[in-house]
Amino acid sequence: MTELRLCREDIYQGSLILINKEFDYKNTEKNISLVPADTDYPEILLECKASSVLARLMKDTGCEKEIVPISGYRSLQDQTDIYRSSMTEYGAEFTTKYVALPNHSEHQSGLAIDLAKRQPEIDFIRPYLPYEGRYGDFRRKAPDYGFIERYQSGKEKITGIAHEPWHFRYIGWPHSKIMAEQGLSLEEYIILIREYPYKRRHLVQRKGRQNVEIFFLPMGEDTEIDLPEHALIQQSGNNVDGVIITMWRKDHD
Ligand SMILES: [Zn+2]
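A: This is the predicted complex of the input protein with zinc ion.
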């Protein structure tokens, strides 16, 4: 057995953190490593794992020259400026639909990216990214790589944001795949995972000869848990009330 120690700060970091109108971005430690989302656009940054996975997804779907990044990581100041200028230019109704309040934007985590079809004129607030052709392939394959289309049509009441076909969020595999298969928003997925606590039945996803087990640890205070020695462990806070553990195990373990 190996011991995993978790503290309350762990709630607020990792690829599964929920950032929306209700839950603000709290990881102000600046401990995320940011790299360019695309070498042709060095000013657009993304968390490093998200960036490398996005590059592979683009390459594997033949979209490298067809899809361009529009907006990645934003500082608090960037988000404040975007919010203010949208209010001035487009008014309150439009802004509350499409632009998150400062500290309530996923872009501040470095895990979100807005993407557009490459064309001469691009709308930077609502970029155009089609659903057909290779763009459709990109969308269908995104959950296999850990990305989700975050603000889907029909989920507006849950996410609090209008349908945004251009906004993608890295949350990591297999979470992205489960969400896509079950048609869940991140808000709904966070609720689902609470049904699989540490000491009870885990949510299981197969990958080849590996079992991927997912379970939830509510975090009232600092916690220690025992986990199998040979398992590969990933952890992420949900930014609400606990930590989600993803445990990779070979069959014979
Ligand atoms: Zn966005």
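The radius of gyration is 18 Å. Helices lie at 48-60, 76-90, 92-98, 133-145, 156-159, 175-182, 186-193.
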